[in-house]
From TrEMBL:
<keyword id="KW-1015">Disulfide bond</keyword>
<keyword id="KW-0676">Redox-active center</keyword>
<dbReference type="InterPro" id="IPR036249">
    <property type="entry name" value="Thioredoxin-like_sf"/>
</dbReference>
<dbReference type="GO" id="GO:0008379">
    <property type="term" value="F:thioredoxin peroxidase activity"/>
</dbReference>
<dbReference type="InterPro" id="IPR013740">
    <property type="entry name" value="Redoxin"/>
</dbReference>
<dbReference type="InterPro" id="IPR002065">
    <property type="entry name" value="TPX"/>
</dbReference>
<dbReference type="Pfam" id="PF08534">
    <property type="entry name" value="Redoxin"/>
</dbReference>
<dbReference type="InterPro" id="IPR013766">
    <property type="entry name" value="Thioredoxin_domain"/>
</dbReference>
<feature type="domain" description="Thioredoxin">
    <location>
        <begin position="20"/>
        <end position="169"/>
    </location>
</feature>
<dbReference type="InterPro" id="IPR050455">
    <property type="entry name" value="Tpx_Peroxidase_subfamily"/>
</dbReference>
<protein>
    <recommendedName>
        <fullName>Thioredoxin domain-containing protein</fullName>
    </recommendedName>
</protein>
């Protein structure tokens, strides 16, 4: 398997798992929801799904990413769902969303089984956290857009993701 790297402050980190590609069938995964309940990607099979992956909600860049996607959610109809996923505990995600008024995205925690991180190639081996990035899955369950942000302290390319979403409308 090809070794993939990202950086954090210029220092190399290893991504575990195969990089997902546009056109592939989106792997089904489970994350933990707000009440520690398992939530499956299959629950959103009739929707376009935007996955916003990030390392930890308690960092400025991750917070900015969360706010951006919460605002972006107002631009789309009910056929688009935004999942924000990290290895933060559900309690931390709930606390953050309540304090920051984040109410238009669904938060999922990958801390328990790392299923999303492994199946989508977002897991950082050295940190046991997810790398930053975006995945868009169409209603046909195929991957339509993927971004693995090469420097984890940088924000994703929101405009490219928005353009990919517009093309699905």
């Amino acid at each position: 398997m090809e070794e993939r790297k990202i950086t954090m402050h210029g220092n190399a980190l290893t991504l575990v798992g195969k990089a997902i590609q546009v056109g592939e069938k989106a792997p089904v995964f489970y994350g933990l929801g707000k009440k520690l309940e398992p939530v499956s990607l299959e629950e959103f099979a009739d929707k376009t799904v935007v996955i916003s992956a990030f390392p930890s909600i308690d960092t400025p860049v991750c917070s900015a990413q969360m706010h951006h996607f919460n605002k972006m959610a107002t631009d789309f109809n009910k056929d688009v769902v935004i999942l924000a996923i990290s290895c933060d505990l559900p309690f931390a995600l709930n606390r953050y969303c309540a304090a920051e008024g984040i109410d238009r995205v669904i938060t999922l925690s990958d801390y328990k089984d790392l299923e999303f991180g492994l199946k989508y190639g977002f897991l950082i081996e050295e940190l046991r956290l997810l790398t930053r990035g975006i995945v868009i899955i169409g209603k046909d369950q195929k991957v339509k857009y993927v971004e693995y942000v090469p420097e984890i302290t940088a924000e994703p390319d929101y405009e490219k993701a928005m353009e990919a979403l517009r093309q699905l409308s």
